[in-house]
Amino acid sequence: MSGLAESRPRRVLLDVLAVLLPAVAVLLAQNGSTWALVTGLIASAGLVLRHWSPRVALVLCLPGLAGGLGWAAAFVALFRLGRARAHTWWLVGWVSLAAASALAPVLIWQSLPPSDVALTVTVVLIAAGSPTVIGTLIATRAQLTTSMRRLQAATDAELSAKADTARAEERARIAREIHDAVGHHVTLIAVEAAALAATSAEPDVRESAIRVRGLAKEALGEMRSTLGLAAEERDSTSARAIPELVARAQRSGVRVTLSDECSQAVQLSSGVSRAVYRVVQEALTNVSKHAPGAEVLVELTGDDDLLRVVVRNGAPMLSARAVSVGNAPDVGRGGSGLAGLSERVRMLGGTLDAAPSDEGFELRAELPLTRS
């Protein structure tokens, strides 16, 4: 904006000088002829019209050229005519007309030898053609500069599109590799679990094997959905699947209670719905790893603006016997699940807090209640 503010006074100054300087030249060079003085000043005043119509401005310069004092104004008009980038033959015609206007009085009223006539015609044609050629070259340079900028912009856009395509192809390749490698092993787990359920005579073993097979199939389906290889978005990772998630945790031995006062009552956007599911899923996974045997309460509440997810658990209640026989869950050293979950919630405009409470641990998430 400041560049425009600075260039506008400059353009005004150049326009004033383009009219004023030819007029001053006429006044300083006037040869006592009233006709030459008047036509020269008219030619200078006519330069005001050069932006609107350079041809009209040049026509007003023709009497001044005939009078001998219109050359300064004609230079400006011819330069502007060249900047207008008219057809080449039109430019040749206008330059010839200007030269003829200046030559006619000389050839009519003066008797010159052929050599002087040829020299005079050459000089006048050069004088009339030079500003036109200069104007045309400047206009061509400006047009080429604009074309180069557009070409550069198109090239940059093409390179950016190629880079995006390359990244997309690489992501697709990685997704296929993950699916083929991990999916193969998860499928084998499901097959082995099904075989164990079919061959074992122990009811508890069969039940556990069936549950493992179901979890393997669920993991495979979620992996395909996450990698974009599923035919459509899975409903099993939405807020409406939270009761099944809780029931599955209960069957695995987690003492969890669900209190849902919001998510089942409204149609959430897909992003918020999946984030709510992941919050509860991550909380139950952490309870199983870090607080086995603890009582867990999952609460989902909301108002007109926010959906609140709170997962509280008490102190772990793992028996000494389970520890002694080495059946305690492997708690690991802490992963990046909460960090990734926090980033997912933050990208949806929400917040995620996880901290110890008086009785155990609490995970609290607040998400905008954006309905689809």
Automatic annotation (TrEMBL):
One of its GO terms (molecular function) is phosphorelay sensor kinase activity. Keywords: ATP-binding, Kinase, Membrane, Nucleotide-binding, Phosphoprotein, Transferase, Transmembrane, Transmembrane helix, Two-component regulatory system. It catalyses: ATP + protein L-histidine = ADP + protein N-phospho-L-histidine. GO terms for cellular component: membrane. The keyword Membrane applies. It comes from the Bacteria. Residues 271-371 form the Histidine kinase/HSP90-like ATPase domain. Gene3D superfamilies: 1.20.5.1930, Histidine kinase-like ATPase, C-terminal domain. The chain crosses the membrane at residues 12-29, 56-79, 91-112, 118-140. The keyword Secreted does not apply. Signal peptide: none annotated. Its EC number is 2.7.13.3. InterPro entries: HATPase_C_sf, HATPase_dom, Sensor_HK_TwoCompSys, Sig_transdc_His_kin_sub3_dim/P. This is histidine kinase. It comes from Saccharopolyspora gloriosae.
